[in-house]
Design goal:
The protein is of the alpha+beta class and 269 residues long. It has two domains: 87 residues, 2-Layer Sandwich (Phosphorylase Kinase, domain 1); 169 residues, Aminoglycoside phosphotransferase (APH), C-terminal lobe (Aminoglycoside 3'-phosphotransferase, Chain: A, domain 2, Alpha-Beta Complex). The protein has eight helices and ten strands. The strands form three sheets. It has a five-stranded antiparallel β-sheet with strand order 1-2-3-5-4, with no helix packed on it. A three-stranded antiparallel β-sheet has the order 6-8-9, with helices on one face. The protein has a two-stranded antiparallel ribbon with strand order 7-10. Helix 4 runs antiparallel to helix 5, helix 5 packs antiparallel against helix 8 and helix 6 packs across helix 8. The two termini are 21 Å apart. The relative contact order is 0.14.
Length: 269
């Protein structure tokens, strides 16, 4: 099932010490940065998350815990039943939920359902731990790549540096942000859209979350324009050109991040 020693993890968690893995139906779940499992028996339905060791270079677990707790207070993130400083978490499974699909963005009512928790977060006035620096992140991830990968991505990085210089005078004030709103982290149930996996949450431009959503759903120009218009309702006007720039910048960051993650795994981290 996994290289994770689940028996040792069970002994580590107070809520699981009375059990052994055989007491549950255990279903592995997908995840790039964590080993994830759904644990089900006649009394409980939990999601167990165990971070992969190579994520220590990317994720501030103290900031994640602090920021997710604040997001819970807004009613947009599920409550974590238990966590430790290494990032192991046990959370009640949102068993009636499903991840968003790209087709969901074609429905006006669904689009507002998607945007409501994002608007609530961005307009909350909360102060998250951490502040993203896109230029620094791109440089750090680029430096972790092999020379042949750097050569391939260097023209895109040079273009990104020019875009970042222009954005410094055009971008919006930073707000509390999730920063990883891929479709798998947007769970829809009968009444709510829940934002999960707050590992990269920090203060950031609101365009970061919007661009991530647009990229994850592969929205074309018209649909991304419609999303931006609906998001702006009741708030500050947003600029389509800045969203377009962020989409390209975050696509490059994702490509660098994935390549760097592969490198760290190959090095045996």
């Amino acid at each position: 099932m996994s290289q994770v020693d689940l028996e040792a993890v069970f002994q580590r968690l107070p809520l699981l010490r009375e059990f052994v893995p055989g007491d549950f139906r255990i279903t592995p779940l997908a995840g790039y940065t964590n080993h994830n499992f759904r644990l089900q028996n006649h009394r409980n339905d939990w999601t167990l998350r165990i971070p992969k060791p190579e994520t220590d270079d990317f994720i501030d677990r103290q900031a994640e815990a602090h920021n997710q707790s604040l997001a819970c207070s807004l009613g947009i993130a599920p409550v974590v039943s238990w966590r430790d400083g290494s990032g192991i978490t046990l959370t009640p499974t949102l068993s009636s939920s499903r991840a968003l699909r790209a087709i969901d963005f074609d429905d006006d009512n669904m689009l507002q359902t998607i945007l409501t928790p994002v608007q609530r977060l961005h307009r909350s006035g909360l102060t998250f731990l951490g502040r993203v620096d896109l230029r620094e992140l791109l440089s750090r991830h680029f430096a972790m790549l092999q020379p042949n990968q750097q050569e391939k991505l260097k023209p895109r990085l040079q273009q990104a540096e020019r875009q970042l210089s222009l954005l410094e005078t055009r971008d919006s004030p930073y707000v509390a942000s999730h920063n990883d709103l891929v479709l798998e982290n947007l769970l829809l149930d009968d009444a709510n859209l829940w934002l999960i996996d707050w590992e990269y949450s920090a203060m950031a431009s609101p365009y970061w979350d919007l661009a991530t959503i647009c990229n994850a759903a592969n929205l074309d120009l018209n649909r991304s324009r419609r999303l931006l218009y609906r998001y702006s309702d009741g708030g500050e006007p947003m600029q389509e050109s800045i969203l377009f720039d962020y989409r390209g910048l975050l696509k490059l960051l994702t490509d660098c991040w994935m390549a760097a993650l592969v490198e760290s795994r190959g090095a045996g981290c």
